[in-house]
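Annotators were shown the component list below and the corresponding predicted structure, then asked to write short factual statements about the assembly.
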Amino acid sequence: MSTHAHKLPSQVPVPAGIAVRRNRASLFSLDRHAPVIAPAIPKVGLDEICLSYRTEKGERLLALDRISLEVKAGEFVCIVGPSGCGKSTLLHLIAGLHSQTSGQILVDGKPVQGPGTDRLLIFQEHGLFPWLTVGQNVEFGMKMKGVPKPVRREATRYYLQLVHLAKFENSYIHQLSGGMRQRVAIARALATEPDVLLMDEPFAALDAQTRDLLHDELERIWNETGRTIIFVTHNVREAIRLGDRVVLLTFRPGRVKSEFQIDLPRPRHLEDPSVAAVAGDILNELREEINRSIEAEYQDGVRPHIDLEPEKTDRGQVAGGFGL
Amino acid sequence: MKRAARFIIFYAALFGLWTLLAKLKIWPPYLFPSPWGVGEALYAGFQDHSYLIAIRVSMERVLIGYGISVVLGMILGLGVASNKFLEETMGGLLVSLQSLPSICWWPLALLWFGLSQNAILFVVIMGSLLSVTLAMEDGRKQMPKIFGQAGRNLGAKGFKLFWYVLLPASLPFIVSGLKQGWAFAWRSLITAEMLYLSLGLGQVLMMGRDLNDMSAVLAVMVLIIAIGYLVDGIVFKSMERSLQHRWGLTTAS
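Structure shown to annotators:
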């Protein structure tokens, strides 16, 4: 494993109950006293990723076109683009749930072959298991890994505290609100101790207040655990609120249009004038792509049905799949 | 309360009508037994242990046969649902086979397994396998794809993926198919037992016919209905209730 050298924004207030656990967090990936050396290998490297698929009519369509991207360990990168640009699909590729047509995805310099618990995807619709309790959901990844039960129990309790849901360990998913479910999903992903968190518009379906709270929580968790996060959203302000860097994708085929380094001090807020100013710049570039996506939608009437192997006809695969 | 009252009124009326018809003696009692005649036959049957033995033998057979059907059906259904070739070829065959009464397999079963327990089991399996298979296929398709993806994402694969994710995720969609499979298994068993003297409830029923004892025939029929109803009410109802509790939804049934 490479050295996790990354900056730690210290302005973020950490709740007292959690602060004690900082030491624990450093067990897996955070070492604040490590010398800051730029790692030779990026945590996640995308090298000329292309993905094409067949439409129902049998035409081949290029969804992702030569996407190259490097993400440093501990970095928070947001990917924005209009719906249909393939940003969600890109996350599924990194997660190893599908394979790209050409190009290479490297994690710690090693090519990705299928799913792995070193990088976990958090779905827009959380994907929690309704037949398990909240606690059993969080435990699930560890159980698959063969972690012994007492260790699992302890880790589950820790991660549920991290997302402030300790009281709900024995509840079932349908008893929780949308925001709570997304927090369980985050706890479940973190519990398998991944190096990289892949988040696919995780807060898109939530109301504004809940989303604000979850932004704060996610930033805090990122600080405490030092994970690398790749966060997909169609919301430019959200991307600036959270990301060290914002990557803009073009509409069909998805290409990297431009990248923005976000150097605003943390914590940021969605309503900050500085956030709005940066958002204005990015939106200007994005607008062109949004217009293209809207034009295409009016032309086709219906968006093409994407046929991806091996999981077919998956709604989540209709890249983006969510209105602007 | 109201429900219980309606329940009592309905069965009292049914019972009354039956008693009345028996009392009128339109048909001789050996053709149309009275309710108390059936009651006496039931009592006598339990008294000499013949019913208890028959129930035990039949239950054992149906549990083995149904158990094999469930395991095989789930594997088959999953295979058909996840493989396009199998779906196109075997999918249609399975649906058309379902129109075949399971007892049509009896002559073949006799040839292959002889007059034995295995022949009966074969008919039971053929009776319930298709329901389970089709239910599992349908359940796998209806099940939201996100569960499979989330499971693989969290490191589940192969058998673990099936056992811990795909199976529980499809349960709400297959529970009615499992129930139907059970009903078919139970019916096939009784039919097969009636054709072959081999203990079991089906045989006790045929014995009643051979002795011209319609009270005994009706008594066994009551037993067969009661057992089918009890399994449905205890096993499947509690399964549905547990699903409802966990998923927070009413299952399709």
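Statements collected:
1. The mean pLDDT of chain B is 87.
2. The radius of gyration of chain B is 22 Å.
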